[in-house]
Amino acid sequence: MSRSVEDPFAGLISGRIVLMSVAAYCSAMSPCPSGESLDPPPAVIIQLMERIVSEQWPSGSEHFASYFARLGCALGPPLEPDEEISLGLTRGQFVMPGAAVNASWSALNGELFHLNLFAYAGEPDSSPDDVNAGYDAIRAGIADAFDPSPDERTDQRGNRSAVWFIQGTVIELYAHITEAPVLQTGVSHEGRTAKFHQLIARSPEHPMQ
Q1: How many whole angstroms separate alpha carbon 136 and alpha carbon 132?
Q2: What is the pLDDT tens value at each position of the chain, 209 positions in all?
Q3: In three state form, how does the secondary structure of the chain look?
Q4: What is the pTM for the complete model shown?
Q5: Which residues contact 99 (CB under 8 A, 6 or more apart)?
Q6: Could you tell me which of 170, 135, 156 has the C-alpha nearest to residue 18?
């Protein structure tokens, strides 16, 4: 699975689940803040990750609403179809009640395979302090709940990433700080995501980026 830094938001915009490539992290970090003042509190996102790992990924769109309810979320409206509808790809939104996040889902032929959340969004050129605090707290919480990430990176501009592989579910955490700061959390079904990538690779109209 390759990592590319050119389009870190491709997972949300194009449906291609792209991992961000960054250089090895070598700068010393300050003590991890708790992130208690953030909206949503990092603990809310950590608990969501734990629930996702504990639940079976649904097959069949008729099961999506009950699945999100078990996660403590609510299924939102579908997004407008795009050119990838011919591949069987559908997308929509979901809501975390009381949490200021932009959250979406992707499914292939009715099989949910990817969830994407953006939180702590800042204005262009604003301070990345909230994003870094949220990243530190969520990274530590996921490591406590499961294991430390086997792959953590930071590029020369300070963008950070970590990934976990847990019982067929992949959790990706990104701190995008170089433009408009935002924290991104992506969760995917490993096997179904691989199937989607294979489908894209075989389609001459949708080459992998």
Answers
A1: 6
A2: 334 333 333 333 233 333 322 222 222 223 334 456 899 999 999 999 999 999 999 999 999 999 999 999 999 988 877 665 567 899 999 999 989 899 999 999 999 999 999 999 987 777 899 999 999 999 999 999 999 999 999 999 999 999 999 999 999 999 999 888 999 999 999 999 999 998 888 876 654 44
A3: CCECCCCCCHHHHCCCCCECCCCCCCCCCCCCCCCCCCCCCHHHHHHHHHHHHHCCCCECHHHHHHHHHHCCCEEEEECCCCHHHHHCEEEEEEECCCCCEEEEEEEECCEEEEEEEEECCCCCCCCCHHHHHHHHHHHHHHHHHCCCCCEEEECCCCCEEEEEEECCEEEEEEEECCCCCEEEEEEEEHHHHHHHHHHHHHCCCCCCC
A4: 0.79
A5: 39, 40, 44, 119
A6: 170
